Amino acid sequence: MNNLITAKAHTNIALIKYWGKKNDELIIPQNSSLSLTLDAFYTQTSVIFDESLSNDQLLINSQNANQTELSKVSNFLNIIRKMAHIDTSAKVISTNHVPTAAGLASSASAFAALAGAASKAAGLDLNKRDLSRLARRGSGSACRSIYGGFVEWQGGHNDEDSFAKPIYDEEIDINVIALATNKSQKKISSRTGMKISVDTSPYYPTWIKVANNDLVELKNAIYKKDFTKLGTISELNAMRMHALTLSANPDFLYFNGDTLNIMNEVKSLRSNGIECYYTIDAGPNVKVICKSKDSDYLVKYFNNILGNENVILAKPGNGIEFIE
Ligand code: PMV
User: Fold this and answer.
1) How far, in Å, CA of 191 to CA of 139, rounded?
2) What backbone phi and psi angles, to 5 degrees, belong to 96?
3) Is the peptide bond before 250 cis (omega within 30 degrees of 0)?
4) Is the pTM of this model over 0.85?
5) Which residues, listed in sequence order, are joined to residue 278 by a DSSP beta bridge?
């Protein structure tokens, strides 16, 4: 205790999406998911529990956090305080290293780094599995950012058996180009979007079956180093997730006009022999999956459409690290 601990975690992009919870408080997902950790975006967070503080303090990118952000972090710290049998307040200093102004920061890297730094600062020595379970309580996708490369979040049924695990030793040539089409805060959070989808989309039960099947297929593609299959399933799975938003009541859509343009561009690039695929999370930004041999060409291509500052090339990234 009374140690300042710093951890760094990268964000991840889901190729098989997590969309829907079966337990809202514990964040147990309806389906398992699979992601790739990316090197280009990360969060670095330092935490100290300090007896002289009367409340938790949170600085994000050198600014005092707003009340909503602070209470989310305080609730998460409460889980750690309970585990460590302490009631001390903490100071949390978090910096998002995202090459553009906004829009690509992620709760996954934020809660993975916070889980690592805060648990260690509280005197806990958690193994990776328990760190993943803990990060999950902050934001589901954060459980996958504990590991590098391809990572599967085994959905499970309860707090004990819902955690991520790495898919080791499977090197496949893959790059991801992040395209920011809108940098403003998203309007419908993933939390809300998932809930409306689970509660109202008539297709929701089918999603669970299809997503679990997509996951098996994607793992096979990774094992066989079959890039075409990997890209095809990832793109399909993303569209299957977004179909839940269109079929919800009230219906909603994360795409904007640029999102649709990029989707069409990717399809036309593909029909012209540049093999690339898209995937989209709970917002209008697009991630383009490609092979490293095509990434320079594609970065230039999208620079012409969106401007250099909105195009970021990422490669597979590492799992959580502690900084001395
Ligand atoms: O972990 P959350 O609550 O930010 O939800 C993530 C939802 C998606 O990004 C759309 C899918 C995923 O698996 O990351």
Assistant:
1) 9
2) -90, 120
3) yes
4) yes
5) 288
Task: Give residue 10's pLDDT.
Answer: 97
Q: Is the CB of 191 under 6 A from ligand 1?
A: yes
- What pLDDT, on the 0 to 100 scale, is given for residue 102? 41
9 lines ligand 1 (CB under 6 A): no
Contact criterion met (CB below 8 Å) for 140 and 106: no
- Residue 218 neighbours by CB under 8 Å, 6+ apart: 15, 16, 34, 229, 230, 233, 234, 237
Question: For a pocket test of ligand 1, which of 72, 104, 281 has the largest count of ligand atoms closer than 8 A to its C-beta?
Answer: 281
The CB of 143 under 6 Å from ligand 1? The reply is no
Q: Is the distance from the beta carbon of residue 237 to the nearest atom of ligand 1 less than 6 Å?
A: no
Tokens found for residue 292: 């490293």
CA of 20 to the centre of ligand 1 (A): 9
Weakly modelled stretches of the chain, pLDDT under 70: 1, 99-103, 105, 169-170, 183-186
Measured distance CA(311)–CA(309) in Å, rounded: 6
Q: Compute how many other C-beta atoms are within 10 angstroms of the C-beta atom of residue 314.
A: 23
d(CA 185, CA 23): 26
Q: Which of 114, 91, 120, 140 is nearest to 42 (CA)?
A: 114
What is the C-alpha R_g of the chain? 19
Instruction: Point out which residues pair with 28 in neighbouring strands.
Output: 23
